[in-house]
Every structure is written in C-alpha cells, then in structure tokens.
C-alpha cells in the first residue's frame, strides 16, 4: 500500500529538517504535485498516493534539501497578494519590497495617470503591481538581463497589464531611455561583497549574483542610478528605492554630495524596524 498524504508530508518534513520552515516546505511541495492547497492537504490526509506522485514529491524534496529555494521549485512566488512567475534568472521577491508599493500609494492616488519607471525590474513585480493598482498608469521597465525581461513580460501578460508597460533591455547605471516620469521605483542590488560572502547556500548557489551584489559598500548601483533617475524624472517627480538596513546615510550622502537635484529625503522602516525604503523628490 502506498503512502498517505499525511505520511508523506511527515516524511518530507523530516527530510527537510535542516532547511527553513520544513513543514511548510513539505506541505507546499506535496500540494504542488497533488494540486492541493495546504487546507485541502489536511482534509485529504488519508488519501493514498500512487508511485508516480510519490516519486515526484521525493525528487522535489531532495532538491529542496540540497538548498534549492521553494519559489524556484514551484516556479512562482506571491507578491502583494498575487502570484508571480519566477525562475533562476530572477531574484525571488521578498516581502520587504512591498514597502516600495506602499510608499507609492502614500504619495499618488490610485486614479492618477501615472507615468512610472521600474529600474532593474527583474521578474517585473514592481512594474506589474503598479500597473495593476493604477489602471490609468503607463510604465517603463528596464533590466540588463534578457531572460529576466522574458519573465517580467510573462507576468505582465498574466496580470493583464502588458499593453501598458514597455519592457526594455539596458543598464540603468548607463542610461534610462525615458523622461518626464512622475515616479521611478527601484530595488537595485545592495548587498556588500562581505555580506555576500556570508550568504546562505540557498541564496549564493541559486539566486542571480548580479541581482544582489553592488560593490564593497553595496552602493555602487545607487551611485550610477541617481543621476540617470534624476534626468528621467519630471520636476517634482518621485524616486523610491529599496536599500540595505544600514545604508540610509550613505544614500543621503551620495544624493547631497554627488548628485544634487533632489530634495525631501525620507527614510521608511520595514516591519522589523530596519531602514528599508528611501524617498526623494526631484527639485
């Protein structure tokens, strides 16, 4: 007799004891193979799996035990209440990045006819979410990675906003080929080289390095981004950036000493109380 749902979840959780959230990981992987939500797994706990289902679950479990992130195994990650496709070509969305969306909502009403840009769009979570929340908005999403842009376009199509976002391949530290923006958002690489050296295997072995590291102090991309963003914003336009938890003063120094033309510098903390988002306005 084959394993029941309850038994294989328990078995997988035991195998995943050395990864974060072993039980949740087990439930997600089993649910993915069986097409069941965590609640449905509980209701169907006595269902017996066939050998094909059990084999697929064991394969996923071994990959997870080796450190492969659940988001890549499932091919999706939730952001701002909806699922987005993810692949190893893009950084896995983090909940902290939702603070950028909240900052935009705090400064622009949803009925605004926004012209926005998302620099370093990756999977497109920010561009697509802004387009979803602002039905009159048009956007511009830039990334240096062609495969990442393919994922972003896929997400835009899935959420019905692809006709309002222009996806362009390019490096935002070299050029931002748009102008007159009301809003620019960016979650640039901001991990220092020293921090990356201590990163978990789950991050270092699987997520794209170029989407994480930004030089010795984690601010190389900010130095390149600020002057290009300033030129792309209209007067009074807003720039919202995600930063590392100890980088607010460094970003403020770059803004004031190396890239004049901004004002109204404001720092917002994340739910853990760490500096996470900076807001500034083009003077």
From TrEMBL:
Pfam families attached to this UniProt entry: MTS (PF05175), PrmC_N (PF17827)
Span of domain Methyltransferase small: 105-196
E.C. numbers: 2.1.1.297
InterPro entries: DNA_methylase_N6_adenine_CS, HemK-like, N5-glutamine_MTase, PrmC_N, RF_methyltr_PrmC, SAM-dependent_MTases_sf, Small_mtfrase_dom
Top enzyme class: transferase
HAMAP family reported for this sequence: RF_methyltr_PrmC
Protein name: Release factor glutamine methyltransferase
Organism: Pseudodesulfovibrio alkaliphilus
